């Protein structure tokens, strides 16, 4: 099917449809209006990757079909359908299939860029005051670029520069700098959307509004000077980045000017003024937020033959991605304690993020990780609770996410009405019961052997005989056998390896201290009972020094193994309580909420991007999303 496509035919097809831009804007902005369910399944693979399987169930009105490539395939043209947004990360082994499992082609970079630019231009043309905005923006354009380039071409270059980050081969900036620039642009666009919506709020705090505008201007000017002084500003992408910053400053000046007019009483017809203000606010906010989405994401657009389209369609997206393993900072007391008795905490944490505003209902399922169990699941919130929420702390601790276990899988669901663009959950992972019991037996065995060494020092002859020269080989063989048995316990899964490593380190330290305890007890008894160690050459040091030094070492190492055994016993007791609680919670129940500043440090962080995710943690989130929904209602 891909061989029949011709880029010129597709671009011509878009230009032939007078409603093309409108369709593109509605589909890219309003996925939650026609996507019924998005189900994300996450699997931690043995190779240390994350395997994603995202199922999207949609019901799309045929009047919103984007016919694509009809000139090259007139009998059965493609229909371009935006399936979901993906971040600009590396997704390997990506595949997109339909309900029957047939592979579907996706749009190329040039095709995706054409669709997104058509959507952006449609939104720009819906702004009643766009000529006024152009006047403010052109002033900054001319200061940065003295060439006589028309405003539409400059604006088109900005649209292309912002939405082209999924093609990285043309970018001269380093990858990390490019990521930072994308995030900066996305955040500033969200700031502008907030200022636009506040511009038309009645009884707005004038001082607060002015302070926010001033802060935004200073940040943009500082960033602009930084870009001018960089070595990349002479390239095409560097010039477009400068123009993007100029666009932000021009929009800010227009916002402040219109804010002054909106709060004055000189207008002859205030009703008309507010009507135009609402249209400006809705269209400009939608434009800014779509641009913000495109800074760090791109729409994955499937091409479906028109004959295969159905009223209800199912798409399945699969891809693999890596996840970083993070090392949490430790204080010196923690490092010393961990060096002696091993890790003090049994559990590990994994953060996951999933899109929760791209469909009416968003689900996430986490496949069980081998040799581990999930102790608890919590929602991570970026927003601090408001004063009203603090009054009822009990209700504030509960999330609207419903979670339950299905055949060992964690299943969470969040609905579109929550107005949360992205949902973060934290999994608290612990080793399974069998693994912990195995480690408990190891720790008890080593504690018992170390206790045996301690008791032998008190002169009980049957025990002393074990430390004679004749039994040295047997003692060393036992220690070697213990090390070999522990080493042969293999671990397959990368994440479970990290979780079980705590138990492995704990038992290794216990075995080390037992080996030292055995050696010191052997030397101590060799000094005290030399007749039993005939044929062995003991160190030529004062007997009293060796006797008391080895006695102290035997006691200390024995105590450490006992402390380690007690630690594993506490872990086992905590594990049984968690298991009992998990058996009770078989029915759906709301998650507990914890703020990002209060949650545990994560050992594995796998947070994906999502449409409008830049609004997460912002107090204006619901207001901005409401305005975009009003725009969609009026133009759908």
UniProtKB/TrEMBL annotation:
Q: What is this protein called?
A: Uncharacterized protein
Superkingdom of the organism of origin? Bacteria
Q: Which organism is it from?
A: Bifidobacterium callimiconis
Q: Which residues cross the membrane?
A: 440-460, 472-491, 511-529, 549-570
Say yes or no: keyword Transmembrane helix present: yes
Keyword terms of this UniProt record: Membrane, Transmembrane, Transmembrane helix
């Amino acid at each position: 099917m891909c061989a029949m496509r011709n880029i010129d035919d597709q671009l011509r097809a878009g230009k032939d449809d007078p409603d093309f831009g409108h369709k593109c804007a509605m589909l890219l902005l309003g996925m939650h209006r026609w996507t019924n369910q998005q189900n994300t399944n996450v699997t931690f693979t043995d190779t240390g990757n994350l395997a994603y399987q995202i199922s999207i169930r949609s019901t799309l009105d045929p009047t919103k079909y984007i016919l694509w490539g009809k000139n090259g395939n007139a009998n059965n043209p493609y229909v371009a359908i935006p399936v979901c947004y993906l971040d600009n990360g590396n997704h390997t082994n990506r595949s997109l299939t339909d309900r029957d499992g047939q592979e579907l082609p996706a749009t190329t970079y040039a095709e995706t860029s054409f669709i997104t630019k058509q959507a952006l231009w449609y939104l720009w043309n819906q702004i009643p005051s766009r000529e006024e905005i152009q006047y403010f923006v052109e002033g900054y354009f001319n200061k940065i670029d003295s060439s006589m380039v028309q405003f539409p071409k400059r604006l088109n270059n900005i649209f292309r520069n912002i939405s082209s980050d999924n093609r990285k081969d043309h970018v001269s900036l380093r990858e990390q700098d490019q990521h930072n620039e994308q995030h900066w642009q996305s955040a500033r666009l969200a700031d502008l959307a907030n200022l636009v919506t506040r511009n038309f709020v009645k009884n707005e705090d004038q001082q607060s509004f002015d302070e926010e505008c001033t802060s935004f201007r200073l940040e943009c000017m500082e960033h602009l000077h930084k870009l001018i002084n960089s070595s990349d500003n002479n390239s095409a992408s560097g010039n477009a980045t400068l123009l993007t910053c100029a666009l932000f400053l021009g929009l800010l000046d227009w916002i402040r000017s219109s804010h002054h007019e909106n709060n004055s009483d000189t207008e002859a017809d205030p009703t008309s003024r507010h009507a135009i203000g609402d249209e400006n606010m809705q269209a400009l906010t939608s434009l800014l937020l779509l641009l913000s989405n495109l800074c760090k994401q791109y729409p994955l657009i499937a091409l479906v033959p028109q004959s295969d389209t159905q009223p209800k369609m199912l798409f399945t997206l699969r891809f693999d991605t890596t996840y970083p393993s993070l090392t949490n900072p430790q204080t010196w007391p923690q490092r010393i304690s961990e060096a002696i008795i091993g890790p003090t905490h049994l559990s590990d944490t994994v953060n996951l993020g999933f899109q929760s505003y791209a469909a009416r209902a968003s689900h996430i399922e986490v496949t069980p990780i081998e040799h581990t169990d999930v102790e608890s699941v919590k929602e991570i919130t970026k927003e601090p609770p408001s004063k009203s929420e603090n009054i009822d702390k009990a209700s504030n601790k509960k999330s609207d996410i419903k979670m339950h276990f299905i055949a060992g899988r964690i299943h969470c669901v969040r609905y579109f009405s929550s107005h949360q663009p992205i949902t973060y959950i934290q999994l608290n992972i612990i080793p399974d019961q069998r693994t912990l019991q195995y480690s408990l037996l190891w720790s008890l065995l080593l504690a018992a052997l170390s206790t045996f060494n301690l008791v032998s020092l008190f002169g009980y002859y049957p025990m002393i005989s074990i430390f004679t020269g004749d039994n040295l080989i047997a003692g060393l063989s036992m220690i070697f056998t213990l090390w070999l048995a522990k080493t042969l316990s293999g671990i397959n899964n990368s994440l479970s390896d990290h979780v079980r490593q705590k138990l492995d380190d704990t038992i290794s330290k216990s075995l080390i201290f037992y080996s030292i305890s055995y050696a010191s007890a052997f030397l101590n008894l060799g000094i005290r009972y030399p007749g039993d160690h005939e044929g062995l050459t003991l160190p030529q040091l004062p007997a009293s020094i060796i006797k008391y030094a080895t006695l102290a070492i035997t006691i200390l190492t024995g105590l450490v193994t006992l402390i380690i055994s007690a630690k594993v016993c506490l872990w086992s007791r905590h594990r049984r309580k968690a298991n009992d609680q998990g058996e009770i919670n078989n029915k759906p129940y709301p998650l507990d909420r914890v703020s990002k500043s209060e949650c545990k440090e994560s050992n594995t962080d796998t947070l994906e991007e999502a449409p409008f995710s830049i609004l997460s943690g912002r107090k204006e989130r619901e207001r901005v999303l409401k305005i975009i929904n009003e725009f969609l209602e009026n133009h759908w």
